[in-house]
Amino acid sequence: MYQRRNSTKIMVGKVEIGGGAPISVQSMANTDTRNVDETVKQILRLEKAGCELVRVAVIDEEAACSLKTIKQRINIPLIADIHFNYRLALSAVQNGVDGLRLNPGNISSREKVREVVAAAKYNGIPIRIGVNAGSIHQSLLEKYGSIVPEALVESALKHISILEELDFHNMKISLKASRIPLMLDAYRLISPKIIYPLHIGVTEAGTIKGGTIKSAVGIGALLAEGIGDTIRVSLTGDPVQEVHVGFAILNSLDLRKKGIEIISCPTCGRCQINLATLAEKIEAEFAFVEKPLKIAVMGCVVNGPGEAKEADIGIAGGKGQGILFKKGKIVATLPEEKLEDVLFTEIKKMI
């Protein structure tokens, strides 16, 4: 297990973040929040995928008022994403959200910030300060000459100090960038300077393929260093994919054990079965399984069970026949045409 960075613990609804709590996976709905039915429908799909917190954009008062109904129809904590408008933050709190994403330095007056803080404190609602490389204040750009880690950190510390001066400490922090070296250095720089939980992610990571790679590299690197208390994978498209990728990252680092993990060989000239297609079918069929399960799909009967001995169950194909194995031990030899059906049947017994 990696040595986790020490941080305070906050509660977003019933989900613990920081203070040694399990690293949570969250996402953001990409529906129009004013369309309650579509937003709820998407959030329920996110829940089914394992999403533990969800954020929605609050662009006007109608969206803020929609939060109450949305909250009543979902089961995970609801976070309101607010930019600049303190009245929308107050309305979101009144409508029952579990958290706010709000940068206090972007609100025009200290008195308005005080109102938001008072409402959040009274209702036990945490605030996430979210600094993005793309929205650094012009004064910091002029000071540093470009977007550098120090600029992100200074921006975050300024926002933090505003809340601390109002005796508000129920917060988590993020410093996101689409460029991985910048994002990594910013989190590494701020990590020893504050005690608050860190929400980590690569913002605007891209499409499912490219964004998954960038997120795995950026988020995975920080988690391997013990930095990070909650994660959000930012992908263009269906946010359900963000949840699957998020848990895959945690699973790969043994930080969370949830869902299936496929172990499959890259194939070589010895492979006699259509390994890639079978692995993809398994991944699709059991995508929503929550129980941790390692499934191996190997192309070589000679080396398969040994190379995948940590798998709970797996098959290894050969010419005309293959083997079914569990925990590295062969339990059956089968004709090639029966391998897939038997494997699927055995997996279903185990979940």
Distance between the termini: 26 Å
Quaternary structure? single chain
Strand order of the largest sheet: 8-7-6-5-4-3-10-9
Order of helices and strands: EEEHEHEHEHEHHEHEHEHEHEHEEEH
The low-confidence runs, each spanning 5 or more residues with pLDDT under 50, are none
Question: Total strand count, please?
Answer: 15
Q: Count helical runs.
A: 12
Structural class: alpha/beta
Averaged pLDDT: 90
Shape: elongated
Strand content: 15-25%
| Main sheet: strands, sense, barrel | 8 strands, parallel
Rg over alpha carbons: 23 Å
Which bin fits the share of residues in helices?
40-55%
Topology of helices and strands:
Layout: E1 10-12, E2 15-17, E3 24-28, H1 36-49, E4 53-57, H2 61-73, E5 78-81, H3 86-94, E6 99-101, H4 110-123, E7 127-132, H5 138-144, H6 149-165, E8 171-176, H7 180-190, E9 199-200, H8 208-224, E10 230-232, H9 240-252, E11 260-264, H10 275-285, E12 293-298, H11 304-307, E13 313-317, E14 321-326, E15 329-335, H12 336-350
Parallel strand pairs: 3-4, 3-10, 4-5, 5-6, 6-7, 7-8, 9-10, 11-12, 12-13
Antiparallel strand pairs: 1-2, 13-14, 14-15
Helix pairs in contact: 1-2, 2-3, 3-4, 5-6, 6-7, 7-8, 8-9
Report on this model:
The protein has helices at residues 36-49, 61-73, 86-94, 110-123, 138-144, 149-165, 180-190, 208-224, 240-252, 275-285, 304-307, 336-350; strands spanning 10-12, 15-17, 24-28, 53-57, 78-81, 99-101, 127-132, 171-176, 199-200, 230-232, 260-264, 293-298, 313-317, 321-326, 329-335. The chain has 351 residues and is an alpha/beta fold. The strands form 3 sheets. The chain has an 8-stranded parallel β-sheet. A 5-stranded mixed β-sheet has the order 11-12-13-14-15. Helix 3 (86-94) packs parallel to helix 4 and helix 6 crosses helix 7.
